[in-house]
Design goal:
It is built from three helices and eight strands; from the N terminus they run ααβββαβββββ. By secondary structure, it is of the alpha+beta class. The longest helix is centred in the first third of the chain and has 47 residues.
């Protein structure tokens, strides 16, 4: 290799022209990654909040649905689902199909033991493991109870990532909501 050729190659390697382009591409890639991460996090949080609100509404509706059988011990400050059966009172609570309420409120569809919300052909989220418990207020309160008819529901939420990155599991969370009913009058 000749001396002139070697000098011209060294001059090209030492030349700083255009080095900002590579740095700019790197900064843009990092910024885009951060933006996608923030957008994905906000999507996951808003989905979880939307599902939580729908479950809360379904549980609240279930408690309110019991109003026809609520014995109203207004003077004592408690109320519960009881019905007079002649000479005595018996508990009277009607079970509710919370999944049907969620299907109506969220637009989910049955998929085995779970409910799934689709965005086009892709799964937006999956709900499973719904358990609900209606707790009646005691007919004669002991001073330790809350004194109101309450409904508690728990459900598992699974939200897949938007970009379906391989090896990254979907977000799983367990939601618990509670609602109570106490008549005002």
């Amino acid at each position: 290799m000749k001396k002139n050729e070697r000098n011209s190659i060294l001059r090209i390697l030492r030349d700083q022209h255009g080095s900002g382009v590579i740095l700019g591409i790197g900064v843009a890639a990092v910024l885009l990654s951060l933006i996608f991460a923030v957008l994905e996090d906000s999507r996951l949080q808003s989905t979880a909040q939307q599902v939580r609100n729908a479950v809360q509404a379904a549980v609240t509706e279930t408690c309110e649905e019991q109003y026809a059988d609520v014995y109203d011990g207004v003077r004592e400050g408690y109320s519960g689902g009881y019905r007079s059966t002649g000479e005595s009172w018996s508990e009277s609570l009607s079970p509710a199909d919370l999944y049907a309420r969620l299907d109506t409120g969220l637009g989910t569809k049955a998929d085995g033991n779970a409910r799934v919300k689709y965005a086009g052909k892709e799964i937006n989220y999956r709900l499973s493991g719904l358990s609900a418990q209606i707790t009646n207020a005691p007919f004669a309160p002991d001073g330790k109870s809350t004194g109101q008819l309450t409904c508690t529901a728990e459900i598992d939420l699974e939200v897949p990532w938007m970009f379906h990155w391989n090896g990254v599991p979907p977000m799983h969370t367990h939601l618990t909501v509670k609602a109570g009913y106490t008549p005002k009058f």
